[in-house]
Each structure stands twice: as structure tokens, then as C-alpha cells.
Amino acid sequence: MIAMIGAAVAPGIAILSYFYLRDSLEPEPISMVIRSFIFGVLLVIPIMVIQYIMQTEWNWRDGIVAEVFQSAFVEEFFKWMVIYFTAYKHVEFDEPYDGIVYAVAVSLGFATLENLFYLIINGLDIAFWRALLPVSSHALFAVWMGYYLGLAKFSKGVRKERIFLWVSVALPIALHALYNAIFLSIQNWLVVIVPFMLILWWQGLKKVQRAHDFGSKKLSSRPQ
């Protein structure tokens, strides 16, 4: 059981540590990051209940439409809600890259407990693939979410903020839905999912650099 817990927790902690340590400007308080991670963990049960209701009461069991709403929309929307109400308005959210840190923390908290449940049910044989695909994908969807939350937080004007906030939730939902659709609709999904994940990493790391550049400009413009 200890090995299973370790296999479930290690990928999320490793990826979160990577993105946290990339924050070279004004690193977030570790207590805030841990709190966000725990919020993500706590999201798993209510989301599972909502998905169960969708499957049983609404009879959404199979197909791409069901996966889009049950998985992509529900999971990304509730993660976004948690980030918005617990981190976005917090005083510690003081540079654009912070959006990425908090979004990744919440998403990986969710992905870690979800990963543990999958390993308990299916065994350690799938641990490598779970770390490589679902856990990593949750983190990468969060990078896009956090990047646009950062742009929203430090945008000039209410209209721009609202546009970036909308993009920050809509884009991760779309990416998550596309990720699910690859597995559901393509027989030889490995041929497609590998380049898809590589593109997510490539673009995600570009978002990280852009958030840093934006943050550097913001800090340099502060009165000395």
C-alpha cells in the first residue's frame, strides 16, 4: 500500500515542484501552494458525486458528449472556481506567473487523489502511464488556465479582464475535451496522443516564459 501511495503522489509532487521552482521573481509562500494543492484534493469527492449524478440521473454514460461534460467541463470549471475564489483575489497573487503556480497546485491536488483511486482499482502496472498522461495533462491544462488568469489579474480595464477570465476557463475545457476525444474516437490513440502531449509541453513552457517576462516588466516598472 505504501508503494501504491508513493506511486500515486510522486508524479504530482514532482511536477508541482518543477513549476514552483521556476518562480524566480517572487516565489509564493509554500503554505499558499500547499493550501491550493489540498483544495484540489478536496475537489475530487464532490466532482465524483456530480459525475455520478450525470451518469445515473441524466443517463450520460458513454460517448464524446458525455466525456466533454462529465470530465472536461466539470473538472476544469470547478478547479477554475477554486483558484478564482481562493487565490485570484488573494494579496499574494502579485505577479502573472502566480496564476500558473496556483492553477497547477489545485490541478495536481485533484490529479493526485484521482490517480490514487485509479491505482487502487487497477494496480501499479498503470502507474507509469498515469504519470505520463493523465497527471501531466492536468498540470498542462492548468498552465494555460493560470497563464490567462495572470493576464486577467494584471490587465488594464474591466473588459480585458473579463475576456482573459473567460479564456482561462474555456481553453482548458477545450484542451481537456480534445484530450478525451483522442482516446474515445481514435483507435490507434498512441500515435496522436504523443505529439499532442509534446505540443502541450512546448506551448506550456512558452506560456511559463511569457508569464515570467510579463512579471519582470511589471516589477521593473514599480517605484523604487
Automatic annotation (TrEMBL):
<keyword id="KW-0472">Membrane</keyword>
<keyword id="KW-0378">Hydrolase</keyword>
<feature type="transmembrane region" description="Helical">
    <location>
        <begin position="163"/>
        <end position="182"/>
    </location>
</feature>
<dbReference type="InterPro" id="IPR023596">
    <property type="entry name" value="Peptidase_PrsW_arch/bac"/>
</dbReference>
<feature type="transmembrane region" description="Helical">
    <location>
        <begin position="100"/>
        <end position="121"/>
    </location>
</feature>
<feature type="transmembrane region" description="Helical">
    <location>
        <begin position="127"/>
        <end position="151"/>
    </location>
</feature>
<dbReference type="Pfam" id="PF13367">
    <property type="entry name" value="PrsW-protease"/>
</dbReference>
<dbReference type="InterPro" id="IPR026898">
    <property type="entry name" value="PrsW"/>
</dbReference>
<keyword id="KW-1003">Cell membrane</keyword>
<dbReference type="GO" id="GO:0008237">
    <property type="term" value="F:metallopeptidase activity"/>
</dbReference>
<feature type="transmembrane region" description="Helical">
    <location>
        <begin position="188"/>
        <end position="205"/>
    </location>
</feature>
<keyword id="KW-0645">Protease</keyword>
<feature type="transmembrane region" description="Helical">
    <location>
        <begin position="33"/>
        <end position="53"/>
    </location>
</feature>
<comment type="similarity">
    <text>Belongs to the protease PrsW family.</text>
</comment>
<keyword id="KW-0482">Metalloprotease</keyword>
<comment type="function">
    <text>Involved in the degradation of specific anti-sigma factors.</text>
</comment>
<protein>
    <recommendedName>
        <fullName>Protease PrsW</fullName>
        <ecNumber>3.4.-.-</ecNumber>
    </recommendedName>
</protein>
<feature type="transmembrane region" description="Helical">
    <location>
        <begin position="6"/>
        <end position="21"/>
    </location>
</feature>
<keyword id="KW-1133">Transmembrane helix</keyword>
<keyword id="KW-0812">Transmembrane</keyword>
